[in-house]
Every structure is written in C-alpha cells, then in structure tokens.
Amino acid sequence: MSEQAPDLGFIHRFSPGRDDSRKPLLLLHGTGGDENDLIPLGQRLSAAAALLSPRGKVLENGMPRYFRRLAEGQFDLDDFSTRTDELAAFVAAARKAYRLPPPIAVGLSNGANIAWSMLLRNPKLLGGAILMRAMMPFDPRPLPDLDGIPILILAGSNDPLIPVDQAALLAALLGEAGADVTYEVVYGGHGLTGDDLSLAGSWLAKNG
User: Fold this and answer.
1) Is 12 a catalytic residue?
2) Is 19 a catalytic residue?
3) What are 89-115's pLDDT values in tens digits?
4) On the CB side of 144, how many CA atoms lie within 13 Å of its CA?
C-alpha cells in the first residue's frame, strides 16, 4: 500500500519498505511515463525495499519528462541543470519526510540521465544507481569524487535512440570519477528485456 503522499513539490508515489536493510529505490521513468510506471519494476527488483517514484514536470507533446530536450539526443543544458537541482531538492525533502537513507536511483532513459546528473551534482544524495538506456551527450568535467558509489549501466546493443558508444562513454566518465561501475550491453533495443531485469536484480542483491 502507498502512503498518502505529502506535498513535496512533485506528484509522486511512496511505498514503505518491509526490510530496513534494503536500500530504498528512487524510480525515475522514461519519456511518457509517470509516478506509477516503474512501481512494478521496483517491486520485482527489490520486493522488500521502500519505493519513491516522482513524476517528471516537463511535458513534451503531453508526455512527462524530467527535463527539456531540443531534439533527440540533444539536451537543453540550462533546463537540465535547473531540473536536476529541482529534483534533487525533492529527493532530499522526501528522504527527510519518509526517513529514508540515500536511495538507489533506478532510471530509464530520460530518468537515467537525470539520475547521473544528480549524482554528479550531489554525490551524497544517492546510494547508487541503475542507469538503463542512459547517454552522456556532453562533457560534464570537472567531475566530482564518486569514490566507491556503485553504478550499473545497462545499454541495448540495437538501441535506435542511444548508441552503445554513448553508454560506454558514460561508464568511462563515471569510472574516472571513482564510481564502482558495472557496464553491461544486452541484446535488444531501447525497451527493457529479461536480461536487463536479471542483471539489475543480481546487481541489487549485492549492492541494495
């Protein structure tokens, strides 16, 4: 059951955990998703963990996103920066309201991109990240110290929207910042596959 959500600046869902030893999951949907979209995924990946799932505030042709883009693969960098800080403030407020330790972000596409942006802005905000179909279309240097933060990056071998080399660049840069990066390429496109779920579940069993 989800608790009645307080007004923290974002429409969101929160489901309390059943095992305090499991890190909470911050679920960040892709374009067109909402606060309900990744709840089943979170429950499948870590059934006993608390789940926090905000809806993106930006609309693209009526579809929620976390930040604006100018074209496919081209971020509106000013909006990206502003929206990153806005979502990070929500996460900080939600952690206080729900008494949560740093959550592991589970982000898909647009949600994965704002997850790594929050990590670079505030390394202590999150306890790790699963970045599915993420990209890094610009150089974010200088990099912060992400010493030991566990990150799983899952790329699709035939993703028509995000070339594998973009995900590989993201993995390299996060590793350069000191994160404990696991990078996997699954056979598939932009959508999630059974291999994504298996790899994410195994990774969470060790890191979540």
Assistant:
1) no
2) no
3) 999 999 999 999 999 999 999 999 999
4) 13
